[in-house]
C-alpha cells in the first residue's frame, strides 16, 4: 500500500487516483509525525473468493428438496 502526506496528495492527486483505479489502497498521512489518518480504496473491488458462512462452512448439508418459506425463516 502506498501512502502520501496531505501535501503530496494535493500535488499528486491524479497519480493517486490512478493507483486506486488500478485496485490499490492509498493511505493518507497527517502531521509532523506522518500519522495515518485515512485510506482511499477502490469502490468496485471485485472479490473472486466465495464468501464463507463461518465455522460451519462445509459442515451443514441440506437435502436437495429442502425449502422454507420467508415467513418460516422470519419466524412469523
Task: Give an overview in words.
By secondary structure, the chain is an alpha+beta fold. The protein has a domain at 1-43: YefM-like fold, CATH 3.40.1620. 25% of the residues lie in helices and 20% in strands. The chain has three helices and three strands; from the N terminus they run βααββα. It starts with a strand and ends with a helix. The mean pLDDT is 84. Belongs to the phD/YefM antitoxin family.
Task: Look at the helices and sheets and give the structural class.
Answer: alpha+beta
Helical amount? 25-40%
- Going across the major beta sheet, what is the strand order? 1-2-3
Oligomer: single chain
Q: Main beta sheet: strand number and arrangement?
A: 3 strands, mixed
- Gyration radius, rounded: 22 Å
Mean pLDDT: 84
In what range is the share of β-strand residues? Answer: 15-25%
- Give the number of DSSP strands: 3
**The CATH H-level homologous superfamily of the domain at 1-43:** YefM-like domain
In the CATH scheme, the class of the domain at 1-43 would be Alpha Beta
Helix-strand sequence: EHHEEH
Number of helical runs?
3
Based on the coordinates given, report the CATH architecture of the domain at 1-43: 3-Layer(aba) Sandwich
**End-to-end CA span:** 48 Å
The third-level CATH topology of the domain at 1-43 is YefM-like fold
Low-confidence stretches: none
Rough outline: elongated
In short:
By secondary structure, the protein is of the alpha+beta class.
Notable features of this structure?
25% helix; 76 residues; 3 strands; YefM-like fold; alpha+beta; three-stranded mixed beta sheet; elongated; 3 helices
Amino acid at each position: 500500500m502506498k501512502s502520501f502526506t496531505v501535501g503530496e496528495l494535493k500535488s499528486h492527486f491524479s497519480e493517486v487516483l490512478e493507483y486506486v483505479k488500478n485496485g490499490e489502497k492509498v493511505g493518507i498521512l497527517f502531521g509532523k509525525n506522518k500519522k495515518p489518518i485515512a485510506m482511499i480504496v477502490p469502490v468496485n473491488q471485485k472479490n473472486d473468493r466465495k464468501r464463507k458462512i463461518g465455522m460451519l462452512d462445509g459442515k451443514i448439508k441440506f437435502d436437495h428438496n429442502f425449502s422454507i418459506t420467508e415467513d418460516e425463516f422470519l419466524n412469523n
